[in-house]
Amino acid sequence: MRMLDLIAKKRDGHAHSPEELAFIVHAAAAGSVPDYQLSAWLMAVLQRSMTRPETTAFTDSMARSGLRLMLPGTAVDKHSTGGVGDGVSLALAPLVAAAGVTVPMMSGRGLGHTGGTLDKLESVRGLKVRMKVPQVERQLRKLGVCMFGQSGELAPADGKLYALRDATATVPARPLIVASILSKKLAEDLDGLVLDVKCGTGAIFQTEAEARSLAADLISTAKALGLGCVGLLTGMDEPLGRAIGNSLELRQAVAVLQGDESCGDYLEVLYTLGGWMLVLARKARTAPQGAEVLRGLVRSGKALDRFRAMVKAQGGDPRVADDPDKVLPRAKKSLPLLAARAGWVTRLDALAAGRAGVALGAGRSHMEDTLDYSAGIVLAKKVGDPVSRGTEVARLYGADAASLRAGHALLAAGLEIGPRPPRRVPVVRKVWR
User: Fold this and answer.
1) The predicted structure's pLDDT at residue 150
2) Which of these is catalytic: 10, 16, 78, 184?
3) For residue 109, what pLDDT is reported?
4) Is 420 a catalytic residue?
5) What's the number of domains the chain is made of?
6) Which of 79, 283, 308, 381 is catalytic?
7) pLDDT value at position 247?
8) What is the structure's pLDDT at 72?
9) Is 165 a catalytic residue?
């Protein structure tokens, strides 16, 4: 089998056999085919796409390209397509684990206006997210939860192909997105997966139609490979919750696990995702019933206990669970964003907020950029809240006046205040099974 022939086959719009796709995946993982040929094939896929059977076979080969976790009990995970302020995983993983579900959460880093779970975790000094498979398995057997980064051991072909996609403008290819997401989850040896597919200005897919199409492809491929799957469509036109930035989002997650209920949209997503995770794990009959179980674990302190134990097991300071201010970095400077007039907040654009976070140092424009873990934004007001002239809508945190001014200008451009309250739109818009 020659890579040149496979490039030509896809270029001409023909479907690959499972054996051909397995050859390509093995070649990517082993480094036996030059990058320029893999890149040419990726561009052919972008232009010609794949059939559903092709996507399924490709995803399966990607999942089998490395090791596979061997887990105790019933394992369920969650995947989000990403957004601004989307730190739900930080609270969700230990919360669901406290209900007796094994949660192996392989996560990623932030790039551009969307944040990354690993960066948020690493705002706790010493906390390790680079872990070998035996370490992950040991922690999961002991605690039922581990939050870790992708390594060369699990779905290594995905790591290689994703780097090439990023460098060749082929990231948007739908079959490649589906295979990248699901191959890592299948390598976790899951019994169930809940997908949080976001749409809006701060999401990868800005229209609901695009998000629905991706969700359908993900769910059908997962089920074809024997993985139970539920998909949620959630809005990302404004940031989720009140915190944007690594240590700020971790503080928010801790507050939620301590029982804070002030972030209504965050809690809606958290408990809907968690409720469905318990349904897939057969710990609840319905998602609302599962959500009530999880609320009880927060009230009892068991969810916070599991978070504390996870942080300690991964080398972080467990005091972050009780007093985050003693552990997490604090910004040197801050600057308020004030309402210019009285009325109601009618728009607080997620993309503008995400770009403001990057300007402050909380995000990356390039993967090699250094993060300021203390930087970010705390929202005092959300869409639908009333304000008076001079009311603090948000507070920006950064290292210097220049970054604060840049972030302030970007955030202000995404803020609109109107004479009437806007129509309320639920954050969770659709659930697919």
Assistant:
1) 86
2) 184
3) 84
4) no
5) 3
6) 79
7) 98
8) 85
9) yes
Q: pTM value?
A: 0.94
Active site annotation includes 142: no
pLDDT of residue 166: 81
Q: At 32, which CATH number? A: 1.20.970.10
* Catalytic (active site) residue 262: no
Q: What per-residue confidence (pLDDT) applies to 414?
A: 98
- The per-residue pLDDT for 364 is 82
Task: Report yes or no on 63 lying in a domain.
Answer: no
**Structural domain contains residue 172:** no
Q: One of 160, 165, 185, 198 is an active-site residue; which one?
A: 165
Q: Does one domain contain both 411 and 298?
A: no
Catalytic position from the list 65, 80, 180, 247: 180
What pLDDT is recorded for position 176? Answer: 96
Question: Is the separation of the CB atoms in 102 and 144 below 8 Å?
Answer: yes
Residue 62 domain-assigned (yes or no): no
Kindly state whether residue 176 falls inside one of the protein's structural domains. Answer: no
Out of 158, 237, 265, 372, pick the active-site residue.
158
- Annotated catalytic, 403? no
Q: Do 25 and 139 have their domain in common?
A: no
CATH number, position 365: 3.90.1170.30
pLDDT at residue 365, rounded to an integer: 76
Half-sphere exposure of 90 (CA within 13 A, CB side): 33
Instruction: Collect the ranges in the chain with pLDDT lower than 70.
Output: 111
pLDDT of residue 75: 98
pLDDT score, position 162:
87
Q: 124: domain range?
A: 76-149+187-324
